[in-house]
User: Fold these one by one.
Assistant:
Number 1:
Amino acid sequence: MRSLFALLLVLLLCSVQLGAHVPLECCFKYTKGKIPVARITSYWRTRSNCPVKAVVFKTILGKQFCVNPSASWVKQHMKKLKHQNTLKPLGWNNLAI
């Protein structure tokens, strides 16, 4: 009985140590279905030490969705969002008089 308790304690400590190396902002599965690009406000890639390589899309409502970075629609959305962020409209303070 005593050895069983010791074994369980060792297993518990090992599992806590293994979980400590996974960043908080990791994806563990991909969202099913496409997210309309008009609803996406930003995106980022998960860190390299995450178990699943993913892109995270953040929507207007603040929801975050993990998507497959290899999917063609994800690549198109990222390209469109990157292009939108590089095009900044000129304001009155930017005009030379």
Number 2:
Amino acid sequence: ILRETDLKWKLCALLLAASLQITWQDSTASLEEKLFKSLFGTNAVYQTHRNGNGPLLVNITVVMSNVLDVVCMDILKYTITSVLVLNQSWYNERLAWNEEEFPFSTITVPWNSVWTPSYTVQEAFDVTWRVGSPNVVLHSDGKTEFQLALRIDSNCNFDLFYYPLDSSQCFLSFFSLDSKVSQLEFSTSISNEILNLKREYLITNVNITSQRNMAQPYFVVMITLKNTGIRVLLSSVLPSFAVEIADLCGFFVCLQDRLSYRITLLLAYLVFYSSFIGSLPESSSCNPLLSYYYTGLLILLFLSTTETILVQKLVMDNANLCLNYGFKAKKKGTSTASTSTALEHDKDLKTKGNTLDRLFCFIFLGLVLLFHLLLAGLWYLWKCAPKKPPGEIYLDGI
């Protein structure tokens, strides 16, 4: 009997607790519904964002989490993929409530239930929301918090003159087209949380600014990218320099084998030249200085091969050379004196050919040094700034 009584009391206690829990949940849901109606009235969407007579101040913290890719789409289109989060907050007195009447410090509502800033990214051609339906957090003092995670594919005007050691700035310009500067103002800050690991372009700096020199409120995120260039240096510049050294060493090869040696170098470099030039990025205003290096090296190889042909023709085949004035090959059966004279002529031509070969060697070495000095001067002294698109004129003062 005692056991049955205890079980009955326990069952009654459980039923009472469940009933109280359901009642509390219903009461909480009812209070939240009343609070929602008191804030928004009959309108499902609250569109007014003015705060008194002055502009509404929106605090924005941009968290840069990653820059995924730097891709060349075509000759005039270089794109980057940026992943960032916009942490936004502002105060609206019309969305405040009394915690004594509604005992909630914060509530969460769908983003389309309240006014939130809308943005247009000028350089973007594709913007993806990483969260399809983000929520908005409302505080009892009127503070509104909204977190927006974005993936932005945008165009960038790269400075490719110093490729593969180039450094460029890419911009993400956020405009609020549905507001004016008299209605909305941005207070911006940025947090760089990018990890530079195993990528060709490194992010050296991330900055943000906002100004009031436009009709609509806006802020600009500036991303500075630097090319490491290791892959290009190892795959193309180093082999080209090795071919240049091999061509200079060709002057130490005996004259009988030098022509085939240099023709082999020239043909091999022609094959690599087509792939080198095809792999270089192109620009509408400033082509990479590296392309001029490849072309100049091809011209030097052609000159050294031509010099070898002329000298070899002069030294080894004097019968049909236009430089061999008055000397003709002697037929068989001539006198010993004529044979001796022909041998002296051949010896004289070989001496002149060797002298000419040494002269060409020094001239070619001077051309190589002059070529590299010219490239070094262009690299350090010539500033080839790419022309800005018309839409970036407003960024000159940033």
Number 3:
Amino acid sequence: MSTLRSVLDELRGEDLGVASEEELGDGLVELERASRVLEAERSRRLVEVERRGVWAADGHLSVVSWLAARLRLGFGRASRQVKLSRALRGMPATSDAFGSGEVSSEAVGMLVGAREAAPEAFSEAEHMLVDAAMALPARELRVAIAYWRQAADACGAEERARRIYEGRHLHVSPTIEGTVRIDGSLDPESGQTVLVALHAVQDAWARDGSEDSRTAPQRRADGLTELCRAWLDRSDRPEVAGERPHVAVTVDLESLTGQIGRRSELEDTGPVTPGTARRLACDAGVSRVLMKGASEPLDVGRRTPVVPSGMRRALVLRDAGCRFPGCGRPQAWCDAHHVRHWADGGPTALENLVLLCRPHHRAVHEGFGVEMNGHGPVFFRADGSVLAEDRAPP
């Protein structure tokens, strides 16, 4: 072990600034191979720790709890390491390839799963599957193992497919922070449908030419929101309690007009900032509710759109899409933003409206500004400096 530590100290002391690009690339490949060898050796030693009962000598009730405490790991990770080390005892070809650094721990995990699914068939096919693991990228290996499992257990494949379908689930839970946590598992067909839809939205964003600084998880989250918003915007939605489903925000007049109010909240997720309420109210349907005191409604008016459909069509003809400099997102992804908010007395008229995509609508309500001049909207930063317009005025 002292030799290993010396080698690692030597690696840490290398001056990477003088290394060539080829040396950096080759070095990463060798480090990956070395890390695989170390992972395999850890598994081999863990088997011996369990065989000798070293964990019991320290008063632990299982090798998993001993490993978690000794290495300061989470219980789940420790459990996975123990499971892997146990499985490798019965997988000689896989162990050899892992120990020589020829296959990754991800590939080994897939091979372990294949063995669990069909132990007898795996024993006969292990060398073939290990060869595949040494040659194929992880994604292709996953597909190859799936086909092998179907061939190895044709009768059981249908039963597995049924179990996967019956196990589908989706949890959508508002949290105490006001966010919504989404977690679940879909069968292959449903999952592929979701992936295709999300990819389609993200591909459309990529084609519009706008600079996008969002992370991949953020783009997926926004894509899911956009898909749901598009469905809610359809005119053929079924009615619930006499209305088509819609996102409802309840806000008092003080909050809406920028004063200190008492209520500004979404129906399921709870309180939002007055700024968020004002942004949502920019292009929405509004119902007036006259209250007596804090809880007794005296009169409820009809819900009417802030921007009528005819006005929206005229705005689309004028702006075509998001007018924020550098953005080209189409009108279907845009809100009609009131330059001077209607709650502050701003008119719902073309000279006071501009199309903004949802991210830029949020940006304008949270720091950027916009004014109208004789040629169209002028956008500026919080410090007052003007953003250059990169498209011809309408």
